[in-house]
Amino acid sequence: xxxxxxxxxxxxxxxxxxxxxxxxxxxxxxxxxxxxxxxxxxxxxxxxxxxxxxxxxxxxxxxxxxxxxxxxxxxxxxxxxxxxxxxxxxxxxxxxxxxxxxxxxxxxxxxxxxxxxxxxxxxxxxxxxxxxxxxxxxxxxxxxxxxxxxxxxxxxxxxxxxxxxxxxxxxxxxxxxxxxxxxxxxxxxxxxxxxxxxxxxxxxx
Length: 205
Known about the structure:
Number of strands: 0
Helix content: over 70%
CATH class: Mainly Alpha
């Protein structure tokens, strides 16, 4: 239960930061989001692995560093946390925005897949690989991957790279149901592809 609670807390603050910074129009929203993920990983990574993302959990499981029995509970904790964070953001701003953002479907699929791949690739190589075992930079590397993606393609897809974030921004009214579907499919595929690439490159592990 400790691991699942940590996954809930980390995902909650990530999605809450996304919602509050976007709804308030904060100019440094991508930095705040990347930093939120970074500090939550440093705070909880030693307990749960600091996934805070169903796509990362999938990647770490496929890589062999997450027990199969933990995958579904992790996902449940992450999705519930994203929903509660979204409801709190909506309450604090006294309602949903007038209309969800509009994004191209093909473009969103491409960039969500690529940057979720990049995120999971960085997680696997900095937080699970033997060559980087015991390092103190993994949280910074992972957080800055999300910052990079948010700046580079946030305007194309909304920059979720995380199905729990996708659910959160949908509940907030920031994204459409179609976009939520893209976040789930593209992001999980990106995480799975990163795990396969990691195993191909690090076959000795």
